[in-house]
Amino acid sequence: MSLLKRLGAAFVFCMLCSAAGFAQSLKGTVTDSLDKAISFASINLKNNGNLIIAYTSSDDKGNYTLQIPADANKSGLVIEVSCVGFSRQAKPVTDAAATYNFKLAHSVNQLKAVTVKDNNPRLRVHGDTTDYKVSDFSSPQDRVIGDVIKKLPGIDVAKDGKISYNGKAISNLYIGGDNLLDDKYNIATSSIPKGVVDKVQVMENHQPVKMLKDKVVSEDVALNLTIKKDAKLQLVGQETVGAGLPDKYYADLNAMMFKDKYKAINYLKANNTGNDVAYDLVSHNLSSYLSRLDNDKPNTVLSLGTAGDPDLPRNRYLFNQAGILNLNNLVNLKNDVQVKANISYLHDSQKQNYTRFSEYYLPTDTIRYAEVQNNRRRPDILHTQLSANVNRDKYYLTNNFIADYSRNTGYSALTTNGTPVNQIFRDNLMDLSNEFNLMKTSKSNKILEFYSYLNRSTEPENRVIDPGLNPDIFNNGLAYKQLTQTVDIPTWFTNNYISYKVPGNYLTQSYKAGFSLQSQDLQSALNVTQADNSVNLLSDSAVNNLSWQRRKAYAEAGFDIPGNKLKMSITLPLNLQQISYNDNYYKLDKDLTRLYFNPRVSLKYQTGVENYISAGYNFRNDIGNIQDVYNGYILKNYRSLYANNADLTERKTQNAMLGFNYRKAITLFFFGVNASYSHINANNIASSILTDNIQQRIVLPYNNNVDSWTGSGNVSKYIFGLRTTVSAGVSVQTTKLNQIQNNIILPYNTISTTFSAGADTKVSSTVNFSYKANYDETTSKSPAVAGASKFQRLIQQASVNYNPLNTLFFSIAADHYYTHQQQANDLKYIFADASMKYKFDKLKLDLELSAQNLFNTKTYSALYLSANTFTSSSYTIPGRFLLAKVMFNL
User: Fold this and answer.
1) Tally of CB atoms within 10 A around 61
2) Nearest by Cα to 537 from 575, 499, 486
3) Rounded to the nearest 5°, which phi and psi values hold at 514?
4) Domain membership of residue 59 as a residue range
5) In Å, how far are 209, 352, 376, 834 from 881, measured between CA atoms?
6) What's the pLDDT tens digit per position in 792-802?
7) Three-class SS string for 830-868?
8) Which region, left, alpha or beta, applies to residue 366 given φ > 0 means left and ψ of -120 to 50 means alpha?
9) How far apart (Å, rounded) are the C-alpha atoms in residues 397 and 821?
10) What is the number of structural domains in the chain?
11) Does residue 592 form part of some domain?
């Protein structure tokens, strides 16, 4: 037993000795210079090779215990203590049983700067707004913001400057959040320097009236240009003057200000280089604006019967001597009060020379016209708009006064089917309107609205044709001196309503009641001046003195669901129309009373954060206008004699659409598909009698239907690896309609297909390249006519920009046009332009030398196909010219 006790004691003694070897540890405290404990300090034990063999951290009282590994070499050990905000300290271990206390001194250690570079473009999405950083997409050759907008993925810019986002046209373009230009935004895109714009913002579901935001559904898409802070503090201007050969001049002098309180774009432009300054005055949403007003303004009745413009960019074919003064100024006063003035005056002198050959294919015959025209046109256009606006959360008021005056004189030396004819056309338009809108929120959070619009317009037209044209038609076969056609339709129109809106958490109810009045007189006469200078009417049926009254009373209920996932708008309008028109000369005296219900519905369902489905349907009843019911003949152009022999046109139109839009902002990918259907039923149809000398048209009381289907898709993507924006689109439209020509009913089915593709790439920091292609194919066929007509067209555009130095820039661009039509030979054209620009940094000016139409093409032919009509036109266009410009900034 004693032996077992001895063995047990020996085992315990060995275990205690072993435990003592493993339990060897170092202790101490860590404090600062004021003897305050430092917690969470790092304590490392390092060997003689500077390797960490043990570590711990101090507790909240600054104490630590650090165990020494049993197998560690005890010589050369060092304790090192560190903590953020304190200097590092170390002590050698000389005795494992000793206490090692540390007192750390405070220190400030500045972290080294870390720069993360990413040159890839990025989009920022916040709510319904998407931000494009201008510097991410601009190139050194870009001069104005419009050059950059064309490159943004998801955005498309048409030839006339109209901007669309993911396939939908924008409603407006704001500058620093202010509506300086309404929808005449070509002024901004062609004038504002790219360097003053920080971001281009796309605002979906845009509601411009603050008190209606999140209450009334809006489908509008708008753009906003945010201005850089330094650009807000100074006057901005890009001035250009130039001259060239042969006999060319160019000037663009502007001054702009983009302060929060005051914004202005004022400029003077003049040139004879084909740059059409009238593009600055294009109102891109005019038709939808007039439709909202329900203002059916009379169209210009007469014309010179010219061929129209070729399907080229306007600077390729325009002979002009143009000048424009454009003043746009906006002031933000206190309490959200804003006033602005938009005033412009344009003068131009244009000329056009062309030949045209037209064919009308009928079952038993083909009618042909051959024309040669030398035309001149001199428009003078004056526009004035004065506006005041108050836009608050509880109160909204706006008043717009617009005055338009234009004087247009046209001259045409014409040879038609071998007969020489001269024409002079004078057209003077005066149009005055005032629009007033007031909205106010009551104490019970209801919204009351009062609206009033008043418009007065007159447009006297006068066209003289000499010498005596087609005497067998216009003067019983006797020679005569000239024909004079006069027309005028003076018009008064007013539209007024009151509305009451009841906002709710999930539904906003709107109720509206109002009335509109339209009063017009159509006065026309076609007179013949005989060889002895006596003047008489062409015939008893060549005069009109038609009076017209349209009175409408309407009521409307609307319901809006402005949800986050589902947005829906339902409108239920009911209107009572009473129309009366009379012309005592023809014993014409008619009245028409109709009650119409025109419902419409639209919805937008958010299928994802960045995806949505849209759908809509509307049914509309329309009644024709005064130009549908005049009985006396009007010679609209030198070979088109029009009259009517039917009751007032009544149309029923149904439209349905469905679309899907997809966006992935982080990868800069945009995709959209849309489909629509339209059915129009009318109670009359136009009937034409075609001969080799003249076209006569009357309206007959027969049922008439037009059906149209449209499908379209578009895609846009920025490829980061290639630094390239690629885009593509497709559109297919088919239209079925009926025509009556020479007493034969001709049903036609026209199918139009369009494909487009494009790429804009930064090949390197010094080279960028762009390419666009559009392919159109139109087919028209009728069971009444043997065979089908087919028209194919391909347009390609490419440009290369190269800047070998920061001060030197080269650019070359080319357009290729290819047209194929069964009735004619293929047409092929190539145009090329080149430019070189040098920047003088010290002088702060640029010198540019450019050449347009390098191949000196002086004629251009174009083919057109519509139903059974084929037209071939050949135009004289400007040849090659050189232009030197000096450009400097204010």
Assistant:
1) 12
2) 486
3) -165, -175
4) 22-104
5) 49, 18, 22, 11
6) 899 999 999 99
7) EEEEEEEEEEECCCCEEEEEEEECCCCCCEEEEEEEECC
8) beta
9) 56
10) 2
11) yes
